[in-house]
Task: structure prediction
Amino acid sequence: MRNLFPGKIAVFLPLLSLAFGAISMRSQSPTVVPLMPTPAKLQAGSGFLRVDEMFGLAFTGYREPRLERAGRRFLEQLHRQTGLVFASRETVEPAKATLLITTDHESKAVQEVGEDESYTLEVTPSGAKLHAANPLGVLRGLQTFLQWVTITPDGFSAPVVSIQDQPRFLWRGLMIDTGRHFMPLAVLERNLDGMEAVKLNVFHWHLSENQGFRVESQKYPKLHELGSGGFYYTQEEIRGLIAYARDRGIRVVPEFDMPGHSTAWFVGHPELASGTGPYQIERKWGVFDPAMDPTNEKTYKFLNEFIAEMAKLFPDAFFHIGGDEVNGKEWDANAGIQAYKKAHGLKDNNALQAYFSQRVQDLVVKHGKTPIGWDEILVPGVPKSIVIQSWRGADSLAAAAKQGYRGILSSGYYVDLGWSAARHYAVDPLGGAAANLTPEEQKLVLGGEACMWSEYVDPENIDSRIWPRSAAIAERLWSPADVRDPAAMYARLPVISQDLELVGLNHLTYQRRMIERMAGSASTEETAALRSVVEALEPVKDYTREGIGVEPTSQTPLNRVADAVSPESEASRLFSSRVDEYLASSCKDVAKASELRAQLVQWAGNDAHLRALAERSFLVKEASPASSALSQAAEVALAALDRITLGVPLSPELKKQQFDGLSALELQAHKAQLTIPALPAFQKLLEAATAGGACTIPR
Amino acid sequence: MRNLFPGKIAVFLPLLSLAFGAISMRSQSPTVVPLMPTPAKLQAGSGFLRVDEMFGLAFTGYREPRLERAGRRFLEQLHRQTGLVFASRETVEPAKATLLITTDHESKAVQEVGEDESYTLEVTPSGAKLHAANPLGVLRGLQTFLQWVTITPDGFSAPVVSIQDQPRFLWRGLMIDTGRHFMPLAVLERNLDGMEAVKLNVFHWHLSENQGFRVESQKYPKLHELGSGGFYYTQEEIRGLIAYARDRGIRVVPEFDMPGHSTAWFVGHPELASGTGPYQIERKWGVFDPAMDPTNEKTYKFLNEFIAEMAKLFPDAFFHIGGDEVNGKEWDANAGIQAYKKAHGLKDNNALQAYFSQRVQDLVVKHGKTPIGWDEILVPGVPKSIVIQSWRGADSLAAAAKQGYRGILSSGYYVDLGWSAARHYAVDPLGGAAANLTPEEQKLVLGGEACMWSEYVDPENIDSRIWPRSAAIAERLWSPADVRDPAAMYARLPVISQDLELVGLNHLTYQRRMIERMAGSASTEETAALRSVVEALEPVKDYTREGIGVEPTSQTPLNRVADAVSPESEASRLFSSRVDEYLASSCKDVAKASELRAQLVQWAGNDAHLRALAERSFLVKEASPASSALSQAAEVALAALDRITLGVPLSPELKKQQFDGLSALELQAHKAQLTIPALPAFQKLLEAATAGGACTIPR
Result:
């Protein structure tokens, strides 16, 4: 294989490499298609379209201002990606266009689920043509072209190609929880830009939580005035964001979580609650007792007016009513509610919640919307029109589809859990039990949504928790099901990640600012050891963070090493795959051993360099146990590597001791809410070095 | 000396270390005062004021909305610097305030030169008090407090201190040229934030150039419509920026450069020019022929109306009329102008320009403003009320003062020239010939201005060309004259630089984006070698860039290694000072030798790692000669170090050869518009290693 797209790293896509087989290449490194999501069909040709300052863009066919704006944004983004200063920053005459865009007709006035997003893109050495039925397809194709432009030894260029593309799933979303931590509009806007870049088409806006009610209600102003601490979106801002999203082919689905997760509503409107109040905005994390009173007709009267107002504000056909995690304690403690249950034959709190849910769904339908809710709203007898968002597991989605309900998958796509991109990437909305659905049932699985719950993110680090991993989820939702090789995904991820930073996200650059704050200095030299720790470690996974140290609240500063480390360490991932390659060579690959050794030596020695800083900064000091654990663990791995290369096997007893030592070091790192992601690789080296292990056979 | 302000690096200030002498300290590293500019008087005490989430701010005395806004911005900035989430983001009751601010009275409705900016700041373990005569002093003191908060082993805190502070110079400016490269408002706003942080008080807005006329004129709309390529500031935006600046205690002085540097005016108004036209917006850099016609009464009629409009738009008392660099060619070529000169006894073009300048100054005065202009406007007989901005040398400023003219210094503060912070820092408005002025004459030297001419900056890298070096200039203009130790300045610069990035500037983080664009990937591993080159090299200095390669224009992409490297390499600066320390130890400091060796080995080996990337990216390939030169030069220095440590002197012949080799390598780097800043240090090692050199005496 050869290096067709210089500047992008190695990934082999069979179709492309075959097509390119005959072309003269510049180096020996394998081919990469710098696209994420991967298109449905791609046929590569020979040659390149040069992209320089004379690049021009034109529209033919159906026209609308949104397309003109998309054209200008495209040129601005192409400028950011290349640095090129274009002669024209507006569209040009079709005859002079480098990229000619043809649109057949308009799309719907309010973007709908299942609208045509397909496009074709033809690149020849003399020009490129993008064709789509409607503006949505154009938006998708423009992003493909932007990713397709690559740096080469001779300038920027777009290789000759023919692409026919459309999404596998209709609903490809990103949810951002603006309830627990408020996110300024600028944060949402840059994330919408990121969504557009990877062809996500639904922004699910989680707008109310125990910790905050984030929407201006003109009908019930006490909701936002008393329930937000001053941090809410005005209706004008919301209309602006919806327009911003529409320009990018993104629907906006609002969520108002009911009857639980609703403490913030009750600060201004305690009469809605099942308890006695008064209520305060919640500062802690978790599931709390307050819940709406399902037995009070005034609740429904209120919600009728409220939903009417919000249904007008948010044009999308879907309206998310939450419905998750009600613990029922307020209901149990309220004698009136207990009496009501008996009187109406509601045998338990699930039945009571189902009753509430049905009443609210009726209101949503009355105001012209389709209800969507979390798993819990699916109870016997609920109308088939609702959409289920599965967070408890993929099987519940399949079960819903079997009963005829539409659904979207979020289980497996919670980006707050700190999973690797590969782990999210392996989750398929039609995987697991859904694989056994009939084709008709499978059509009910609309897609999926990455979910960014915001206990441990603020405007400074939220991008790093969403990106670039959500690009892998976006590929899962857009690309053919057989595009699923994690190695190929990881080869492209740093390329897409770089584009995303130039789109305006700061998921890479945030880290430097946080490191330097902890160090109290911007000196590259002074921060080197801290940077090395931050680049090697990851935050603890899943919900383990809650159990460590002081109970966190919405006022806990997110300024620690655990907040600065990336959810997925590149250095540790590369180290781990090199260990796999080394072991696959039966430890005969000397060059690989030398690479491993260099990294281990660096990690082993790093903690000593961190100590001076740890003495000066409490934030560095707090992470010292983790830094020390990394260095000690690297020493253990280094010793194992030494034994392998020297041919001196480790005794099983010593191995066990070392394993225990590594486990203790991992626990030590946990105290700083950190984990050592290379630890399994260290264990593999130990295994291989143990008498009878893979690499102890005399060579 | 001890480590009083942990997290900040070493600098010794005599006053402070004496005062702190009795306090128990945590480490052996010397004291640093993390302030820039250094206050006029600072008396340290013992103990610390803890800064945590309960921090509260209150105002007493004179109140105005600007102060409330300053309070909110202060809390937001303190949040950014610490990550702390404050219980109150508004001001609190004075009794509950951690920082109590007392203001005596209002400042002028339009900020004036010489208004009182003094303040006192008292920090005790139980609270802090800031007192100032007017809001300007409060703004200055708030920035001092923000810098004073530091990270310690136990949290964030502000050490006990008593500060009485006021500026040395009244006029402390930053000029940004928005003519050659247009800068969006967001760029100007974040730079105003940076100015506030280091107590600069004048934003000099260079608004018209050959390459663009950047202000909306309602009177003469063809000026901006035809002269800006669509890139101009509306009057509403300008009013917004002026208000933004006023909130930060910054005056806004507009500059309209006349009669030269004015091609862009003539695109819409060729009748103002001395040539025949038609005119196009200039794309090249340099001094061009077009100039206003000083002999045409219509020119003055036009300028009268135009200045009337602009004098209204910009409230500042000063109005900058440029006046620099007229080459006179259009005047010479115009028979009518030549005849006019004869008829009016204007013996040469200087006289003609003086005549024009006087007429324009009269218009400026007529519209209520004080004219300011570059050196050239100072001609015999010009009224004493004008202010001279010296760009041709400090001596011209002294000469002006001797004649009774007020002046400000910019010669020595041109940040586009790529000088080191130390070199700018050494320039004093009262240095050179000005040192010999009488005290009365010295008062005429109002201060200075850093100047950011924009041939080689765009919105992406402009911050890195202004900051952090302008913080050193700001200290020169604010702090007592005897605050001038470059080592102490460099010890504080990375601390201030970190604050400035958290203020919203991107002078540090821009580099990662540019490196990754050149590499086509965000992989830390793949970009490591390129990062190492970028961190070691600097752009060529002064105006040498013009002479290299293809002639640059306003459409030349600023995406190259030369645009990504910092004007001052930390790695090279630290290496160079370590060489000095090593030589000062007569090469006996073994630890220092080992540090030097490690850096040289890394540089020497780096180019080999860059080659794969250079084969894939034309932007990396272009810098390859410089990368290769760095590695080769480091090899030479390494060999010299070897000879020193082995005690094998270099022959004078070989030394000459090596010197010649280094010079050739520097020229090789120049081809990529780069320079190797460690080269003088390499030469010092060679000198020391040569027979008879400093380190060849047997030890």
